[in-house]
Amino acid sequence: VNGLMTLGFTGARQQTELCNESLMLEKLPACGKSFEEMMKKVDSKKWCNLTEFIMYYDNFTQCTEREANNASCFWPNPLAEGFITGIHKQFFSNCTSEKVHWEDPPDEILITLILIPVMLTCAMITLVVWCSKRSDIL
């Protein structure tokens, strides 16, 4: 039985190939070039709006994944991530996230939000004390 199980496990194991990093790095620029051509269709003022180019970016991502897999490399990997980061710097370096300025709510709302839990806590404490003094009912 052990021999059959060992044979089954070794037979099921696939031979893994080593990642051909040079092939992957050779092929990834074609994905970048294709993405660059597609991004020319989008006004550069709209490059920070993902809805304007999401399909192009999806094609770019699939291309980088396909080329990494063709080179027997995992995706994402540090080399592919470095390439993708370079594309991001090229197209999206001016896209900054606006910081949200938080404000306190108006005093009336703030007082209400503070007083409701305080009043409920007082009411629950009163109820517990009152019920504990009336142990004859329980």
Query: What's the end-to-end separation, in Å?
Result: 67 Å
Uncertain regions: pLDDT < 50 for 5+ in a row? 1-15
CATH superfamily of the largest domain: Receptor activity modifying family
Percent of residues in helices: 55-70%
Which structural class is indicated by helix and strand composition? mainly alpha
CATH topology of the largest domain: DNA polymerase, domain 1
CATH architecture of the largest domain: Orthogonal Bundle
What is the mean pLDDT?
85
Relative strand content: under 5%
Query: Main beta sheet: strand number and arrangement?
Result: none
Cα Rg: 31 Å
- Number of structural domains: 2
Number of helices: 5
Please tell me about this protein's structure.
This protein is mainly alpha-helical. It has 2 domains: about 20-95, DNA polymerase, domain 1; about 105-135. The chain contains 5 helices and no strands. The chain has helices at about 1-10, 20-40, 55-70, 80-90, 105-135. Mean pLDDT is about 85; it is low at about 1-15. Belongs to the RAMP family. One of its GO terms (biological process) is receptor internalization. InterPro entries: RAMP (IPR006985), RAMP_sf (IPR038126).
